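To the team - zinc ion complex, inputs and output below.
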Amino acid sequence: MNTPPLFIDNLAFSKKNERLAGTLSLTDCQRLNELLQSAQNNSGAADQISYILQGKTDVAGQHLLLLSISANLMTTCQRCLNEMPLNFNLKFKYLIGDVSDTDVEVLDIDNNDDYDLQQASQTMDLIALIEDEIIMAMPIAPAHDNDCGTLARQSGEKPNPFAVLKGFIKS
Ligand SMILES: [Zn+2]
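Output:
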């Protein structure tokens, strides 16, 4: 079941201190889905993404969006090619920039490392934003923490008969 696109007027959202929470599945995030290259797509039941978006206006009158993403995904280990779970708990703070902002204000924003800049938009695509953030958090070559690869790789190889002979000669 696909989630309909979620377009948000992000400036109004933050001014009203609105809050939006929900869950997404991988069918909502096709780019992410392709990236996960899940070998056995076991009905996709394990894959779940939940999010909370909170609008906020701080004491300085800056309009903010706070986004939390919690994702439990299944990908393929690049070493042993077995399934590997990926769990993300991500938090983002966005400062909504007015299109009419001057360069001076942009400089101020750059001084604040805590925030990412988000262009003011009446149709901010929330699902695309969440998907982008997860994709950026993804390891380039996901692999299990333990040394899972050596066994899987060598299991297909036949032992070298000369190596066995060598052992005999030495002893
Ligand atoms: Zn592995």
